[in-house]
Amino acid sequence: THLQLHKLFLCRDPQSMFRNMFDDAGRKNADVNGIETSESGEGDLEHIPMDDSAEEFRAMCWALYALPTETQVQNLPGANIQRLVHVANMSHKYTLASFEDWALNIIWIHCQPGMDYLNTCSVGMLRRIFEAATKGGRTDLRDLVEQRWLPRLKTGELELRDALDFGEMHGRREFSRDGLFSTGVGYAPVLSVDQGVSRDGLFEDWPHARAAVSSAHGLLLHLNVLDGVEPFRTSAGRL
């Protein structure tokens, strides 16, 4: 697939990687997928091979060619957040800093009270926004993703397994820990004196007590593994 774009639009960001890419581009690469550019859209073409998906590249082209009336309504409800994430990722890849900042700012607006995109979006979008924010240095947006994710775990709207996989993939151990605690995984009912502990301190309801201890041990074991700590054992081995 060959796409013809104006060099001016690709290079107008002062930090654009395309400025250097054009210096290395040649007609010898014209038989591979990529973009062809010229100053006016006519005449000699320079070819740059690309390895991005069509959806990602369409998003970047949209941002490059969008009219002011299109960009100014992106902070209103109904904006295509997935496209904005693609814009942020592609802009980061090709060092289009102003476009990346713009896309992340618009996404941030949609995550604020009154719009609350993070309260309803899919796990996939939570993950993508987190990754785009991390690459773009937006720690505020990155942290907000986790803050909005946890309550949705507690209500059962989202799966804990997805959150734990995410935490492990990105090294977010505190997030994994908070996710476990917010869902109550590993907790068992607290035993009162009347329910299971005799006056001499021994468990009367041993099966119930064993279940509680085993459950607590499993939770601590999981957290220890996440923190890189060797799992502990009792004198009798694992519970």
TrEMBL record:
Organism: Roridomyces roridus
Upper taxonomic lineage: Eukaryota, Fungi, Dikarya, Basidiomycota, Agaricomycotina
Highest taxon in the source lineage: Eukaryota
The name this protein goes by in its record: BTB domain-containing protein
